[in-house]
Amino acid sequence: MIVRRLRAPLILLIAIIAVSVLGLTIAPGPMVDGEARSLDFFHALYFISYTATTIGFGEIPYQFSEQQRLWVLFCIYMSVVGWAYTLGTVFALLADRALQQAIAQMRFVRSVRHMAESFYLVCGYGETGRLICQALDARGHRIVVLEPDETRAGEIDLSDYAADVPALAADASNPDTLQAAGLTHPDCIGVVAVTDDDATNLAIAVAARLLAPRVPVVARAETREAAANMAAFGTAHIINPFKTFTDALALALRAPEAWHLLGWLTGIPGTPVESRRVPPRGPWILCGHNRLGRLLIETLDAEGSSVTIIDHLPQADPDHLWVQGDASSPASLEAAGIADAVGLAVCTDSDVNNLAIAVTASQLNKNLFVILRQNHFSNRSLFDAFECELSVVASEIIAHECLAILSTPLLEPFLAGIRERNDEEWCKWLLTRMVRRLGGTVPEIWSERVNLLRSPALYRMLMRGVPVTIDQLLHSHANRYEYLPCEVLYLARDNDDDIVIPAANTVIRPGDELLLAGRIGARDAFGLNVSNEHALTYIITGRDLRGSWLWEKLTGRGKKDEAPRLP
């Protein structure tokens, strides 16, 4: 592109210099011994070179004649015109968006190609993509971003990420762009398609399935058609934020204890668990007949609750009572039966309207169970001030699901097992047990695989034929008579013999993968148990393998406080 744009200016400059040199060699010089001395080719080229670039060393190798000076005067003006044309073309080329994009793409491709550690490819840097990138970066993962909007892509350079984030403003649905972003790179460990367009997300999922079938894909789909198309191409993880929310609402209506348990396991680690009000059964009012509204109607109908719809459009659902009008108007709410309603679901596309409707309805019926849709994450402070029972934030739902799938893949089958179990007594027992053991804060969830890389000490001990149970692994390496504040929730094995809440005497096998929940800090302690031979030998046999002074400080044990051996 640069050579093509500068072809004409460069040809003009070369022509001007060539003509100037030729003329200076022909022009007669000063008279010496009765003869006119002319410049040879070398001295003419030397003089024109520094004259045309405005350096100006003077007349060399001798004073010029009047004819030579006249020719030099003509050459000076010719060179000024040539340089002005060339510099103008260069400045216009530097300001050309096509060249800027080409240079940015070249730098992006080079930075991705030279990445020497595993990374995730995130397509879409809206509210959802930003939350996912921030969470992945906080957990030490590298990220590559594709975002079609240049303004959003430019915000990445201003963000405070721990590591550099290569980003490109380009169409993520283009297979060539995806390959340039590292889709087929050997260190790409996952693709996250969370753009605002279902067609683009579908194109990303299809390209990943065909070009890099080994790479897992997490894709956003807000319509059933897009989700079905993604599933047809083998996309492993499809997230519809509204479907995810309505499934959780259905679980809350059908199995409140299971809903409380899932909420306790999927919250923000370290935050206190607040008791949540269970959604009531009875007459509900729905404001906004859109995608979310229709899913809410299906859920409430399936759980035996009647629904009255308020919308400014004419009636589009003959199976339910429809009130046409402004949902923030007391008259519309009263016509829908706000006085007798047990719940209100507000899901229009405007955050201001949603808050106005919720405030008005709460004044008319203070006992309402309010579900409030938040369209933009930036309005979080306003929705927090209202303190509704449940809020629907699509970006948060998608980000949370993506992180759960990418960081702890075992969490999804464990939660699915709880939903399918449909045992309220068991869920209540498990929640009571976990809260008693781990406290009233949301635990940290993580997984550990029994292999030579993740848990070398445990793997070597198992390969030597030493049996190790789950109960033994949960003991503290500082005092083997105490337990670590963590629990094993799920045990996955290669032969599909998975166990939900495995018994304490379950013997660990090489290749097993454990899903654990524990207090903040328990993850590091458990990791030391399975990776350090000193710690594992002590908690299994009671025998203290003497280590260095630093090891004794790290474990909190010394020679004087060695624990007695078990009989």
Task: Give an overview of the whole structure.
- Helix 9 links the parallel strand 6 (188-193) and strand 7 (217-220).
- 35% of the residues are buried.
- The protein contains 24 helices and 18 strands.
- The longest helix is centred in the N-terminal third of the chain and has 29 residues, at 66-94.
- With 567 residues, it is of the alpha/beta class.
- The termini are far apart.
CATH architectural designation of the largest domain: 3-Layer(aba) Sandwich
User: Under the CATH scheme, which class of the largest domain?
Assistant: Alpha Beta
Give me the side-by-side strand order of the main sheet.
5-4-3-6-7-8
Which overall shape is indicated by the principal axes computed on the Cα atoms? flat
Number of domains: 5
Distance between the termini: 81 Å
CATH superfamily of the largest domain: NAD(P)-binding Rossmann-like Domain
What structural category arises from helix and sheet content? alpha/beta
Give me the number of helical elements. Answer: 24
Strand portion, in percent?
Answer: 5-15%
Find the count of extended strands (DSSP E, 2+ residues): 18
CATH topology of the largest domain: Rossmann fold
Oligomer: single chain
Poorly predicted residue ranges: 558-567
Specify the helix fraction band: 40-55%
- Taking all residues together, what is the mean pLDDT? 88
